[in-house]
Amino acid sequence: MSRVRSLVAPVGVTVALVALWQLVVQGAHVHPWMLPAPSSVASSGWESRSSIMTNAVTTIEEAVAGLVIGSFAGVALAFVISLVPVVRRAVWPLVVTSQTIPVIVLAPLVAVWFGYGITPKVVLVALTAFFPVTVATVAGLAGADPELIELVRSFGASSSQVLRTVRIPAALEHIVAGVRIAAAYAVGSAVIGEYVGGTSGLGIFIDQAHRSYRTDSMLAGVAVIAISSIVLFGLVGVIGRRLTPWRDNPTPENRLIGIDT
Amino acid sequence: MLEVRELRHSYGDIDVLVVDALRVDDGAFVSIVGPSGCGKSTLLRIIAGLVAPTAGTIHIDDAPLPTTPGFAGFMPQHDRLLPWRTVRENAVLAADIDGVDRSVSSARADALFERFGLSGFEDAWPRALSGGMRQRVALLRTFLAERDLLLLDEPFGALDAITRRRMHGWLQEVLEADPRSVVFVTHDVDEALVLSDHVFVMSERPGRIVGAIEVPEPRPRPPGIVTSAEFVERKAQVLALLESSDG
């Protein structure tokens, strides 16, 4: 019941905004090339549904593969950084600096190195995913409650046992949070990779719509990107809750926007 | 038998704890009573091997205590249950660290849940438990560590008076069935006198032992003991010792 009620406000606002958009476009006679009405966006999306589907599958594959690879790489790097102080001092500034380079700048370079297939897109997504996951994991491993660590040490735990019984489980919810942030950016990064060049993907679909002045198709593509991102974000949340069953369930409102606590 | 000899602990130039001699016989229940900040928790941490003393030694049956932790069953002030472990998994924590097979340690734990008032909650997450239940899980965890010496640091300090009195009766029952040596830190004089064979009174910083009271009545003791003339007189003695150590 409360779950349904929590949906009323956000759905209502969205419907109201779309209706307003429709009315403004019709009333002010905006040129469809500038801003098509939501109804024409929907109908153009429906017409090209099979093309959108095929392209969306490519983009989602790139995003998921990149997210998985980037997350594993991020967790692995975070463990090395956390456990070997020399590595932390040597590598941390580089990791942070790497984040000052925007994806859009990296995309052409990655294409030069990896060609125009699926690989450069996966690499691009992985590069954007790994940073939030690394930061979250390092924070999680370092932030374990010192009282819990003292407790397991009192029973004679070695440092690897402290890691297994306290630090890793304590880091798990931080890792999940990091992967969720990465998931929110994954589809977008894949699309940027596709803009640089390729044969399939939502980026390619939007680029072609752009070249043929089909603003309605472009917006349909944008909508699919948004929906894919939200689904991916939600999916990571569901998997994350499965991995940390000891945590309180989020309130329905917070679940909707993906906040767990 | 546990013996503390010429123990001193300082932070920089400031002595926080000076204990010339303290003895805990096998199977004895010894309480340490003192004002907050007198170093009684530090003393437990030193015996647990978690803090290295500035000077002095601790002997167990005339051999020096190993300097690494793990020798005693330590129960800190807060329950410190691991939130990602169920009640059962928390209970067998020490056995996990000792490398005991889970099937063995779980069976051992399952046999005790009822006595610890936890049956039905074996697979619950700690967040679902009340304060008193969490405390009992922590105590069960300490018992299941299978150490002869238990170090309990104000285990009931966070509980309300009624729950606390219930826990006293229950702790005595548990100890009667499964005797251990206990060092029990508290600032509750009644609690110390009800539970202990010996009550040591500590002064304010630096913490020194300013007196010891023996409680000869056999354990377990009924809750009504607190109104007996002997009990009241011993309580007066302890309070006088605490008073005299002021400042």
In short:
The complex is a heterodimer of chains A (about 260) and B (about 250). By secondary structure, chain A is mainly alpha-helical. Helix content of chain A is about 80%, strand content about 0%.
Structure commentary:
The complex is a heterodimer of chains A (261) and B (247). Chain A is mainly alpha-helical. Chain A folds into 2 domains: 1-30; 36-257, MetI-like (MetI-like fold), CATH 1.10.3720. Chain A contains 11 helices and no strands. Chain A has helices at residues 2-27, 38-47, 49-83, 85-98, 103-114, 119-142, 146-154, 159-196, 202-211, 215-243, 252-257. Chain A is globular, with a radius of gyration of 22 Å. Chain B has 247 residues and is of the alpha/beta class. Chain B folds into 2 domains: 1-72 and 148-166 and 177-247, P-loop containing nucleotide triphosphate hydrolases (Rossmann fold); 78-146, no CATH class. Chain B contains 8 helices and 10 strands. The model of chain B has no long low-confidence stretch (mean pLDDT 88). Chain A binds chain B through residues 147-148, 150-157, 161, 165-166, 169-170, 172, 244-248, and chain B through 48-50, 68-74, 76, 78, 80, 82-85, 93-94, 96-98, 125-127, 145.
